[in-house]
What does this fold into?
Amino acid sequence: MTDEEIFRHIDHTLLKAVASWAEVEKLCAEAIRYRTASVCVPPSYVKPIHGAYREGVNICTVIGFPLGYSVKDVKLKEAEIALAEGANEIDMVINLGDVKNGAFDKVEDEIAALKKTAGNKILKVIVETCYLTQEEKIRLCGIVTATGADYIKTSTGFGTAGATLEDVLLFKEHIGSGVKIKASGGVKTREDLEKFISIGCERIGTSSAVALLAK
It folds into this structure.
């Protein structure tokens, strides 16, 4: 697998709380140079990036991040503003409290509402696998499929663990044909990148790809 092939699957990510504009500019320059799928950045940087780079950078941002327990209307407003300011892709965190309470109807309603807001823009649903049982993961695969979301995403990278090959294979078995998979968190080596892509991940969220691959 060539470096170029790997970069096409990378959401080049910078989500730390103290990220500076200088670091964001470096991220965007790298994304342009290596042709990554997107940059994944905090919502507060969407408008400045769009103003500086216009269509030169595909902007992904996060909603309800990283804990997911803000109420639906707040997530919808976050998404609405991010899209208006130039985001093309939204990575939302589900409400894990609803999952643990068995309120899967509320989870489905929230994802469906976010997808309606996103329209033809890409919606990725972060389910944070490290906190889920096998049964919950399977149930969420069905919900993500039913809502018309574009991706199911393993992790925020801020939980107790990140992506695993086992979870990606489980997703692959249980999602519908229209849903893609994004792995995030703990993908730290070239071997990891190649493995996750080879088993079916269309996107990988990582801050390490350029350091690993750039010559």
Summary: The chain has ten helices and eight strands. Residues 47 and 84 are 9 Å apart (CA to CA). The longest helix spans residues 104-118.
